[in-house]
Amino acid sequence: MEALHSGGRRTGVRRTARGFVASVVGTLLVPALVIAILTVPLSMTPARAVAGWSARRLAWVEGTSRDARPVGGRLIALLAIESLLGLLSACILALIVMGLVVAGQMFVGAAAGTAVSIFDAEPGAVTWPIVAAYALPGAFLLFLAASGLAGIAWIDRQAWTSLARPGVGELTREVSRLHGTLDDVVAAVDAERRRIERDIHDGVQQRVVALSIILARAERAGDAEERRELSQRARNETQHVLDDLRAVAWRTYPAMLVRDGLPAALEALCGRTETPIRLRLDMPHLNDRAAEAAAYFVISEAVTNVIKHADASRIDIDVTQRGQHLVLSVRDDGRGGAEPTGPGLSGIASRAAARGGHLHVQSPPGGPTTIEAVIPCG
């Protein structure tokens, strides 16, 4: 129990020390805060950058991450509050420094018998009883100053926590966006079902019909040579049926994606595609199967879209992990002019949006076309 209390005291002292350092850093950030507020009409980038610095400062004090960030008017309000708190911290820190300077001169004057210039005191005028008389009120003022810094740090944390929460309007817009995403996902699922039905009807079903006709002819054939020929054709047709079924299963959900992960599935996709593909992967720390599945289908459908419409001779695929996001890029040298609102690209956008990501398409007439998607990953 005593060890537990000792550990708690050490944690409290460590947090207090970090809070003091954070107050000093917050004071140093005041010029940046003011500049960020003044440049808001031109760009929100400086404001977001300063808010990021402040988030890291608070996270260092608390030992936890500050992932939620205020936006819009709440971001400006936070910067204004932090500017005022920084100025207050600067005033309190200045008073603390002045008090320490006075205390230091008094201690030196009492110990060495020298003059204390801050009081215009002659040598020997400041004695230990005088130092003791000033020590108690000085310690009380130091306690008040430290309490003021602690209060400012508390207000800073509470302001960040309150303003980082989304407002009613933002929540309403997010709910509307999620409803729209849900509708897009349902539409994408229906389109996928229609595609599977079409693949089976136009491919597998036609080959099964052809196989049944060949087998019927083999049953009626009187010549042994003709029966052998028809049997061979039936075996070939059976192999085609199996190949078509494997292709349908692969397009529906490749088993390799679950078994071996995204890199192996993408390499297999490149091997199955007649158009030459250059694949570059940079995701050493990815361990999110849902994100891998979303990334695979975004890339797969983008490649299918290129093959159907772009008349391209080359496709470049880049997959890069940047922090908590997967950045996907599919670029081709085709004819360009792709419409982001078309059924193919809108379906890809729906897939990305279903995982909280977004899609960006650049396709000038004449090409090249670049499809970029950003997908969150754990």
Automatic annotation (TrEMBL):
InterPro entries per the UniProt record, alphabetical: HATPase_C_sf (IPR036890), HATPase_dom (IPR003594), Sensor_HK_TwoCompSys (IPR050482), Sig_transdc_His_kin_sub3_dim/P (IPR011712)
GO CC entries: membrane
This enzyme's EC code(s): 2.7.13.3
A GO term for molecular function: phosphorelay sensor kinase activity
Catalytic activity line of the entry: ATP + protein L-histidine = ADP + protein N-phospho-L-histidine
Pfam families: HATPase_c, HisKA_3
Coiled-coil zones: none
Entries under Gene3D superfamilies matching the protein: 1.20.5.1930, Histidine kinase-like ATPase, C-terminal domain
Domain Histidine kinase/HSP90-like ATPase: 290-378
Residue ranges of the TM segments: 20-40, 75-108, 128-155
Keywords, alphabetical: ATP-binding, Kinase, Membrane, Nucleotide-binding, Phosphoprotein, Transferase, Transmembrane, Transmembrane helix, Two-component regulatory system
Endpoints of the signal sequence: none
UniProt name for this protein: histidine kinase
